[in-house]
Amino acid sequence: MSDGNFDDLLAANARYADTFELGGLEPRAARGLAVLTCIDSRIEPLAMLGLAPGDAKILRNAGARVTDDMLRTLVLAVHLLGVNRIAIVHHTNCRMVGATDDELRTILAEETGIDTSGWTFHAVPDQPAVVAEDLAAVRECSLLPDDLPVAAFLYDVESGRLTPFARAGT
User: Fold this and answer.
1) What's the CATH class of domain 26-167?
2) Which end of the chain is more exposed for a tag (fewer CB within 10 A), N or C?
C-alpha cells in the first residue's frame, strides 16, 4: 500500500514504459465495441472478453450505470471512434446493488461523517429493473443510431463467467 505519495506509481510506470508496445495504436475501436462496466477491481474488461488493447472502448463507473456522461461518451465513441455495438456489464456482489441513493447517503454519513445530501449515486436497488432502464436509455438516445446493437450481461466475480442479461428491445 502507498504511503500517500505516488512514487510507487511512477516507479511502476517507468518499468512499464521500458517495454511499452502500444505506441501507434489507432484510436478507433478495432472490434467496434464499447463496454460499460463497473469500477469493481475484480473486473478485467479486456481479459474477460478475450480482447486486446485497442479492440474496445472501456467505460467504467460505480454500478455500470448509463448516466448522462456515459451517453455523452457513447455518442462520441459511436460517431468518432468506430464503436458499432455496446455491451453493458453488471456483476454479482456489487456494492451498488440492493441499495437506494438514500441508503447510500445514510451509510456514507454514518461511516465517514460526510454529508452527501443532494448527490445522486445512481444506486441499483433492483438490478434487472435498472438494467432494463439503462438499455432503454441507450436505445432512446436520439444521438445514437436506432439499429445500434446493445446488450447487457451479468459477470460472476466468483467464476469469471458472463451471462446474457438482456438485449435492447427484448
Assistant:
1) alpha beta
2) N
Residue ranges per domain, the chain? Answer: 26-167
Letter string b/e over residues 87-109, b meaning 16 or more CB atoms within 10 A of that residue's CB: bbbbbbebebbebeeeebbeeee
Which ranges constitute the DSSP H helices of the chain? 7-18, 45-48, 68-80, 101-112, 127-140
Instruction: Report the 10 Å Cβ neighbour count for 68.
Output: 9
Q: How far apart, in Å, are the Cα atoms of 27 and each of 86, 109, 128, 149?
A: 17, 41, 33, 21
Amino acid at 15: R
Residues 48-106: pLDDT tens digits? 999 999 999 999 999 999 999 999 999 999 999 999 999 999 999 999 999 999 999 99
Q: What are phi and psi of 161, to 5 degrees?
A: -85, 145
- Cell numbers that stand for 101 in this block: 441513493
**63: phi > 0 → left, psi -120 to 50 → alpha, else beta; which?**
left
Kindly tell me the burial class for residue 110, based on how many C-beta atoms sit within 10 Å of its own C-beta (0-12, 13-18, 19 or more).
Answer: exposed
